[in-house]
Amino acid sequence: MSALRVETAAGGAPRRIGAILLRHVYLLRSSWIRVFDLMYWPLLQMIVWGFMTVFLANHSSWVVRAGGVLIGAVLLWDVLVRGQFGMTWSLLEEMWSRNFANLFVTPLRPGEFALALMGLSMLRTIVSIGPAALLAIPMFAYSIFEIGLPLVAFYALLTMLGWAAGLVLCAMLIRFGLSAESFAWASIFVLAPISGVYYPVDTLPVWLRPVAWSLPSTYVFEGMRAIAIDHVVRTDLMVRSLALNCVYLAAAFAVFLYAFRRARERGRLLQTGE
Fold first, then answer.
1. Tag placement on the chain: N or C end, fewer CB within 10 Å?
2. To the nearest 5 percent, what fractions of the chain are helix, strand and coil?
3. So where are the chain's domains?
4. What angle do CA 130, 166, 31 make, to 5 degrees?
5. What is the pLDDT of residues 164-178, one digit of tens each?
6. How far apart are the C-alpha atoms of 188 and 85, rounded to whole Å?
7. Longest dimension (CA), the chain
């Protein structure tokens, strides 16, 4: 009998994860405002940096040689940002509607909820970045898809880091409630200056470079510039980024589960909307 319960619980996990995904798909499908909000900032950033690239191309031989490296950097940076936002936003919508505790009246488990948040992060990222990437083609004659297969690796690596950051921030929201909401919006931008998004890591002070190289995102942006400027695919950078991502993601998952357990023990699951 116990074996049957274990088998049923395991078999029901994909359905429970799918139910969370479906709930938020229905929310997006029924609200064009939500969809527009997802696309707005990536589109705006791409347009601003696209015109900046056009301006710099007339005044700098480096920008001419690098092509649309700045536009590509903006689009990839938004993959990381939207990867994290996709998780925290989905959790916040449950908290704002005071539905978070109701989810765990069902057989839904914390780990399954975390996996559902990851799936929602990928969905929201595609909806956010896709239109900006496509619009850059007719507006600025730049297609990030010309990177080829390495683009898939860049997307996956940045999404993984977004998940790690998102899990830690979701853990804070579960543990401390909406009083930690501001961290969900601002924390990820701390990585921008030290990830070498718009400039090589060599631009940073010597003492800050080891910090930059401890971030998986740094290897992605250095790899993107290697392709755009030197036309070289740096698989070594991808491997290092993947290794760091695995460590950070495992640690973040542990933090999420620990925060959930502590919140449940202290009765915080019923107070997350306060």
1. N
2. 85, 0, 15
3. 2-270
4. 50
5. 999 999 999 988 888
6. 9
7. 74
